[in-house]
């Protein structure tokens, strides 16, 4: 049961990132006109960045070609996988055609940013009213002597999500621009409510229903336990994906040094 919660958690973490097979030709580009410019020495830098990013969000819906950003809603990940092992429990999960809806409704509640000697510290408070995720999964699970090979469809509806992203990074010169590269990433998403459906845990529909009810009843406990336990999986993935995104958007187009 635990492994399914890992899948859901992981999918949520990974759902907020960019797939890796995007073109790299970002040498000649400009930010679209609607993006506001901020200045490094602005005492309200965080506020400015918040407005710039909030302006950008609704337009990410169809993807932003100029920035090589794929559509946010739905955000599709063709394939992803996760291995999990902890004592008696071993699991490998493959997910296919994972679609996430609702990320374009993100509300940036607050951004705090500090730039000093090329080091950039950022905290971003984000609220998602609702995230719906669905996909196909296939798993191999070993629990002591018990072996399960469930597969099927799953979906998760999460509502009232608050999260704070903590980024620590530094500026890197490339192609005559400064890019932000993050060295550490952390987040602790708080989820108001979660409704989970997983098909195929057990072939028998009645048994499956019991398992699904169990998941829905105890999701807060699973979630609370699994978020830190799976951190070592999603943290480097998120860091890489965020850096992939940041590697396409010159930071000095968004946050300028005063001439
Ligand atoms: C999740 O999938 C199940 C089974 O396909 C379906 O009955 C249910 O309506 C789906 N949930 C949502 C919120 O779409
Ligand atoms: C998220 O923040 C809002 C506003 O501060 C609050 O009303 C809501 O209960 C929070 N949700 C969770 C899951 O803590």
UniProtKB/TrEMBL annotation:
<keyword id="KW-0090">Biological rhythms</keyword>
<keyword id="KW-0732">Signal</keyword>
<comment type="similarity">
    <text>Belongs to the TO family.</text>
</comment>
<dbReference type="InterPro" id="IPR010562">
    <property type="entry name" value="Haemolymph_juvenile_hormone-bd"/>
</dbReference>
<dbReference type="InterPro" id="IPR038606">
    <property type="entry name" value="To_sf"/>
</dbReference>
<dbReference type="Pfam" id="PF06585">
    <property type="entry name" value="JHBP"/>
</dbReference>
<dbReference type="GO" id="GO:0005615">
    <property type="term" value="C:extracellular space"/>
</dbReference>
<feature type="signal peptide">
    <location>
        <begin position="1"/>
        <end position="15"/>
    </location>
</feature>
<protein>
    <recommendedName>
        <fullName>Hemolymph juvenile hormone binding protein</fullName>
    </recommendedName>
</protein>
<dbReference type="GO" id="GO:0007623">
    <property type="term" value="P:circadian rhythm"/>
</dbReference>
